[in-house]
């Protein structure tokens, strides 16, 4: 099985691009490109791998050796972790994750803002991976729309009271109650910088 370093070098040579040219076209230092090709270092983010892949006209998944067993996941925008806020559905980027990481289904990513989910480990700026589905179990963290507004909350249906409780995971905030909402997906992973 070929390594990232081997796939990078082979693809670069096949495209007749020098290490210096690749560095200039990506904005990555020549030293880093040399280290990636020698195998002494890997790119420290998917964003760097994506830059290299775009210039070489291949997928980042190919360079990472994950192409056949990966799932494309689109970053659609931001989601409120606080009061309701309109959620834009613009594809900002597409990432590929191994199927072993995502599991089955279709997924999208949202970057969070607000602090209503911090006790669940979801902080402002985190990426939350959402499995697209229109149902949820009580206690699931969901992307939910009420009218034109979208938020990320823990979901508790209360049919006996004919309402739905949307629970923020922040003890300083109160539950929200709605009579109807649309579930757009269930949170399955949180991706954060350390």
3D architecture notes:
This protein is an alpha+beta fold. It has six helices and nine strands, in the order αααααββαβββββββ. The protein folds into two domains: 4-64, 434 Repressor (Amino-terminal Domain); 70-191, Umud Fragment, subunit A (Ribbon), CATH 2.10.109. It has a nine-stranded mixed sheet with strand order 2-1-3-4-9-5-6-7-8. α2 packs across α3. The longest helix has 11 residues, at 4-14. It is elongated, with a radius of gyration of 20 Å. The relative contact order is 0.13.
Describe how the helices and strands are arranged.
Elements: H1 4-14, H2 19-26, H3 30-38, H4 46-56, H5 60-64, E1 70-80, E2 93-98, H6 99-102, E3 107-113, E4 127-132, E5 141-146, E6 149-158, E7 163-167, E8 176-178, E9 182-191
Parallel strand pairs: 1-3
Antiparallel strand pairs: 1-2, 3-4, 4-9, 5-6, 5-9, 6-7, 7-8
The count of domains is 2
Biggest sheet: strands, sense, closure?
A: 9 strands, mixed
Question: How much helix is in the residues?
Answer: 10-25%
- Structural class determined from secondary elements: alpha+beta
- The ordered H/E elements are HHHHHEEHEEEEEEE
What is the CA-based Rg, rounded? 20 Å
* Assembly category: single chain
CATH topology of the largest domain: Umud Fragment, subunit A
Which tags fit this structure?
single chain, 194 residues, alpha+beta, 434 Repressor (Amino-terminal Domain), Umud Fragment, subunit A, nine-stranded mixed β-sheet, 6 helices, 33% strand
Short description:
By secondary structure, the protein is α+β, with helices and mostly antiparallel strands. It contains 6 helices and 9 strands.
């Amino acid at each position: 099985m070929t390594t990232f370093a081997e796939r990078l070098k082979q693809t670069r040579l096949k495209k007749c691009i020098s290490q210096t040219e690749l560095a200039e076209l990506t904005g990555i230092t020549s030293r880093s490109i040399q280290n990636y090709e020698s195998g002494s270092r890997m790119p420290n983010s998917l964003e760097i791998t994506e830059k290299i892949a775009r210039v070489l006209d291949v997928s980042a998944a190919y360079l990472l050796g994950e192409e056949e067993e990966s799932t494309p996941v689109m970053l659609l925008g931001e989601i409120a972790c606080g009061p309701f806020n309109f959620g834009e559905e613009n594809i900002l980027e597409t990432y590929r994750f191994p199927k072993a990481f995502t599991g089955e289904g279709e997924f999208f990513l949202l970057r969070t803002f607000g602090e209503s989910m911090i006790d669940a480990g979801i902080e402002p700026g985190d990426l939350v991976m959402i499995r697209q589905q229109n149902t949820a179990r009580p206690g699931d963290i969901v992307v939910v729309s009420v009218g034109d507004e979208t938020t990320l909350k823990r979901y508790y249906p209360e049919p006996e009271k004919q309402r739905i409780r949307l629970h923020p995971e922040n003890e300083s905030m109160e539950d929200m109650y709605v009579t109807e909402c649309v579930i757009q997906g269930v949170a399955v992973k949180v991706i954060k910088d350390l």
